[in-house]
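Note to self: the last two entries modelled the partners one at a time, which told us nothing about the interface. This time every component goes in together.
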Amino acid sequence: MMDMSYDAIDVRFGELLLKGRNLGRFIDVLKGNIKSALSNEHYEKIVQSRDRFLIMLSDKSNANKIIEKLKYIPGVSIISPVIFTEPNIKSIISTSAKFKFKNDSVRIEAHRSDKSHAFNSKDIISAFIKNQDKNKFEIDKNGIHTLYINLMRDKALLYIKRIKGVGGLPVGSSGNCALLLSGGIDSPVASIMAMRRGLYPIYLHFHAFSTKKEIEHSKIPKLLLLLSKYSMASEVYYIPSHLFIAQTSKIPESYELVLFKRFMYKLAERICAKHDINTIITGESIGQVASQTIDNMLASQKGVDKLILRPLAGMDKDEIIKLARQMGTFELSIEPYREVCSMKIRNPGTKIPSKIIDRLYKNCKLDECIIETEKRIKKVTLRSVH
Ligand code: ATP
Ligand code: MG
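The predicted structure of the combined assembly is written out below.
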């Protein structure tokens, strides 16, 4: 529980403010996302100003739960529970007594969002120093805690917490993407990075199960629910791999993985066309495994007329794992999972020529296989439940 009662949650936009003339559109998307994330929470209303939202709380609000949800909303950069007071120095000083700092020293950081007041930030700090004997805490410019004061036109905001949000752009503001999601560590991290750039992911998961029930009981829906905290909901296409496996049973094993990737991309391309999507995202990282050499990535994506983005391209595995832990996907990612067997091939060549993949693709009749596979796709929508 919060140790005191707050009037509002202050939500700052961060990078969005660089948007110039388009700012309004981005703010609208962010507001819609926040409303949807808080649809089960009590609050009075959202008040918008130039660089922030104030989510006005009511008696029934649970500030902690609201903050917990806001932490996952891309586009939100800093979150602070705030107390309001009159925009004058006397009220600011007396209201500051509501914060309990034990015996530690406090630094005052004052800022004016509205500059029309007759006093400035320095005047506020001087007044606190003058009042030193009566303050409930010791003022020190190197203090352990910080009391933040923000002067707006009609009120002053007081707060002591600056909670980091995910930052970036609001989900949906850059359109949709097709996200190739495996059950592994990398692609969920890639998904969160894509969402932070404003993309709404439509997930494509190729699986080795024979019934929908088996997928539903696997870890994939759990992973998707976790990812939905960022995007509010998730749409997923569960795509069976058995037709591909049957069709490619006679090819040399060393080509199978790259051919399977080509198959995934070509099928993804068709789903993209239905949703007006122009980008496919993967969790690949240059050179991480043999299938992720530049040559093999090129061979797998040849002839795919979409922008293929790999947000983890330049990252080290340890960094990716660190992010997965921070974002909360790691534990599920390492749970055992029945992978598509073509993905498990350990020794694909590292320089597979595109031409060989072109030929195998044609000989195995994979265009027809894609059409047959499409008929067996199951589409599911999940809503965030946090
Ligand atoms: P990950 O940790 O994301 O599974 P990885 O290091 O295991 O990645 P690969 O198995 O080569 O690497 O997969 C590379 C990328 O291909 C994945 O990040 C994902 O985007 C995509 N991919 C792999 N398997 C599947 C699958 N079954 N369904 C959808 N996409 C997949
Ligand atoms: Mg994998």
